[in-house]
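Section handout, structural biology tutorial.
Before the tutorial, make sure you can parse a SMILES string by hand: atoms, branches in parentheses, ring closures as digits. In the record below the ligand is pyridoxal-5'-phosphate, and the chain has 392 residues. In the tutorial you will relate the predicted C-alpha cells back to the input. Do not try to memorize them.
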Amino acid sequence: MTKINKLTKDILSAIRESIGTDPQPLHAPSFSLTEINYLSECIESTYVSSVGSFVGKFERMLADYTGAKYAIATVNGTAALHVALKIVGVSKNDEVLIPALTFIATANAVSYCNAIPHFVEAESESMGIDVKKLRSYLHNISEIKNGECINRITNRRIKAIVPMHTFGHPSNLDDLLKLCDEFQIVLVEDAAESLGSLYKDRHTGTFGAVGTLSFNGNKILTTGGGGAILTNSLELATQARHLTTTGKLPHKWEFNHDVVGFNYRMPNLNAALGCAQMEKITNFIELKRDLFCRYNESFSNIKGVALIREPKECRSNYWLQTLVLDQEYAHLRDEILRETNNVGLMTRPAWSILSNSIPYAGSPKMDLVFTKTLASRIINIPSSPNLMSASI
Ligand SMILES: *Cc1c(COP(=O)(O)O)cnc(C)c1O
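Predicted structure of the complex:
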C-alpha cells in the first residue's frame, strides 16, 4: 500500500468540509421549470432552427447584461472566435498572440483563419497574459511598419491578440489595451469562461474590438452548445451576423450570397434554453462567490496550496474554483487528482500547454517558463452553482 501525503489528505478534507462527502462532478448545469417551459414553447412554435423569437431575445438579454451594444449568438464558442478573428481582419499567414495556457479552441480558431498562433507567457494573479513580459518581448522581436506590427524573425504581420480570462478571472485589460495601442494590434477577448466577470466594473468581453462567449454544457450558463460574439461596432456586428448566416443577402424568398459564409447561427431551441438560463445568471454568480468563500475558509489553514481569488479591481464569476500548489508540492498533483477522483469528488488538472501539443508544436512562442510551472500546479475542484445549498 502506498502512503498518502499529508497535503493530499488535507486538501481532500478541506473539499469535504466545504461541500460534503457526496460525489460531485467538476461542474454541472442547473435547470428548473423555466427551461422546460421555454423549450416547450419553442417546440410548439415549430421554429426550432435559427429562425425564431428566442434567438433575438437571447441576444438582447446578453447585450443588456454585458453592456455590449451588439450580441450575435452562434453554434458554439469556437465558431464565435473564428468569426471574431475574421471580421477584425485576421487572414492567411498573420500571427495572433494567444496564451499558451488556454483551451485548444483559442488556437484552433486562429488556424481556421489560416493564421498562426504565437504563444505568450502567463502571470500569477489572473493566470492570463503577462503584459509586462510581452511588451519587452515585442520590443525585441517586432517593428511597426506602415501602421502594422511585423514580427522581424518570421516577417509575418502580428494582427491580433486574444487574452483569455482563465476560469473566470479577468486578465489585465487596461495594460492590454495600452499594449495594443502601442503595437497596433487588435484586441479580441476570449471571454468563453468569464460571462459575468467584471474588470473595473465593466464586463469582460466588451473591452476588445470583439469579445466572444461560450455556452457549452460545463460553462457558467449553458445553451447545450452555443456561443456569442459581443461588439460595440455596428459595422463589425453586421459582418458577424452576415458571416454566421451563410452570407445570405436578405430577401423574402431568393437565395443569393456575396461571400463564403458559415452556418454558425444559434438554433432557436438552444436560445430558448439560454433565455431561461440568463434569468438566473445573477443568482449563479452569487452562489459561486459563496462557494469560493466556503472553500476559502476551509483552505485558509492549509500550507502548500493557494485557492485563487479574483484579481485586484475585478469581480470574478468564479466559474471554476482553482487550487495552485506551491512549487515544492508540485509533484503531489497527480496523487491529489487520483485521491479526490477516487472518492467521486471530480478534480481536473489545467490543459496541457498548447506549445507542447501536436498541432502547435512548431508555432512561434516567447519564453514560457512561468506558464510551464503554473500549468503543472493547477487543480480545479468541484464548482457547480448548486453545491452551496446541497451542503447546508
Ligand atoms: C469553452 C471555451 C471555448 C469555446 O468552446 P466551445 O465548446 O466551442 O463553446 C473557447 N475558449 C475557451 C478558453 C473555453 O474555455
